Amino acid sequence: MKIDGHGQAKILTPEEITRLFQAGLHSDRDRALFGLCLYTGCRINEACTRLVRDVYQESGLVSAEILIRKKDTKGRRATRSIQTHPRLRQWLEAYQPQVKTDYLFPGRWQRGYIRPTSAHKLLQQAFQRVEIIGASTHSFRRTALTQMSAAGIPLRVIQEISGHNSLAALQKYLEVSEAQKGQAIAALTF
Q1: pTM
Q2: What is the CATH number of the domain that holds 85?
């Protein structure tokens, strides 16, 4: 569902993210799955197709970096390695898949991986529980990339994390707030 004024998925506020992860998502698996989207800026398909070894060490500990393999990315451009955020680490530690499967988020009857359409349905139910309107699985990607930009992270670094082919493609994801516009004008010193 894309409903903001520019036909793009809603960017979530910090308050909405808190409500969603505390009250909307009911399982460790769901918090780990959607936390992966939020804290890596990855697409839902990239999260669903993660292998256990892309996230956990052989010892069972969460890896310092999340691996998103080239074959699982939209443009199959490059493998990405993204540092594991402390909050994401907590969700992944709480989740620890219990079945023996190669996929981090197994599908129905432990065959293959959870399909992005199934993940979307789970998320829509969670959004309804906490009354968040206009958001989708893609909201996590837009939220993560916009927050990085707002924090002053150089666009080239954000591009490496997101896997976008060009800065122009990345910039379509980013939202600029009125406060940021005001800060930009206030920064003028001439």
Answers
A1: 0.85
A2: 1.10.443.10
